[in-house]
């Protein structure tokens, strides 16, 4: 299975959220945790971000 991995900028663009809001939600356990690749690179699987967005839509 091929999974597209997203950098922070792509996650911000996809969700419409700022970096600081994403980090705030991460701290609250309300946003999917990234996969750490190396010491400074965090990536999110596209499907997890998409699922998070769909959950927000369903909750409205």
TrEMBL record:
Highest taxon above the source species: Bacteria
Pfam families for the chain: Phage_AlpA (PF05930)
InterPro entries, per database record: AlpA, Prophage_regulatory_activator
Protein name: AlpA family phage regulatory protein
The species this protein was found in: Allopontixanthobacter sediminis
């Amino acid at each position: 299975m091929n999974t597209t991995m997203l950098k922070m900028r792509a996650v911000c663009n996809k969700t419409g959220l700022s970096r600081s809001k994403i980090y705030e939600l991460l701290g609250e356990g309300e946003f999917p945790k990234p996969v750490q690749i190396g010491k400074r690179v965090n990536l999110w699987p596209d499907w997890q971000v998409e699922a998070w967005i769909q959950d927000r839509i369903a909750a409205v």
